[in-house]
Amino acid sequence: MHDEPTTDHRQLDAAPILARIARLQDDRRYRDRHQLFFVEGVRNFIEAADNHFPLDALIYSERLLIQPVARKLVRRLKRAGVPYARVSPEQFRSVSRTERASGVGAILRQRVLRLDDITPRRADCWTALSQIRSPGNLGTLIRTSAATGGAGFILLGYSIDPFDPLVVRATMGALFRQSFVRASAGQLGRWARNHKLQVIGASPDGEQEYDQVGYVRPAVLVLGNERSGLTSEQRAICRHIVRIPMVEGTDSLNVAVAGSLLLYEAFRSGSR
Predict the structure, then answer these.
(1) Domain co-membership, 92 together with 149
(2) Angstrom distance (rounded) from CA 206 to CA 219
(3) Whether 176 contacts 48, CB under 8 Å
(4) 231 and 136, same structural domain?
(5) Beta strand 104-109 with 55-60: parallel, antiparallel or unpaired?
(6) pLDDT tens per residue, range 239-272
């Protein structure tokens, strides 16, 4: 890889950017205040660039980064004027959260939309939720939504952070193919009515089984809290509330499994 001279004004000092990355990984308030997050790994790096996530800065280790396609992308982004830091393997590993450091990462700008900015497309299927216990479960849901052609996620309130490093890692790049919106349940209800979206909620006391409802897009799938289920406000905006059958005495499914079943049923119905 042919690097620009060290006098290049776009080249960043390693120590400050490493400290910044560490704080972005550990401090959600810092992430949200600056509207930034950090990703590492060749797949995440390429997916972020391919899906036009704005890059705030690039970090790479010449010795660790061996993937030709990623090295080529680094050169292209540097030529395009993206600020960068070239670091040693030891410096890169100091902020890496993976078992085997890939040698490339990026500070990206968060991309969170408002409902008023979105006009649903005919085939859209959104997933709405307010709480989730495990970052891994959210990562699984994001991957499932991407795999089924889902439009993205409507995050009700501020509890959920899709840019948590554990969530980003669990999505395996799917995060960059999804849209994220923050809204209240009331805002979602008004938006769904204005655009004539079908809203389907999932709850153990649903009146129909999840595969007995006609999923008509555009649609919103509302997933409740894993312990307490849908709130009264969430129930009020649902046209249908469905249940997932389970044998007697079984505890409720976690939200990633429940949401994935609904997403695939919506996908199957839309493919008919």
Answers:
(1) no
(2) 18
(3) yes
(4) yes
(5) antiparallel
(6) 999 999 988 877 667 899 999 999 999 999 875 5
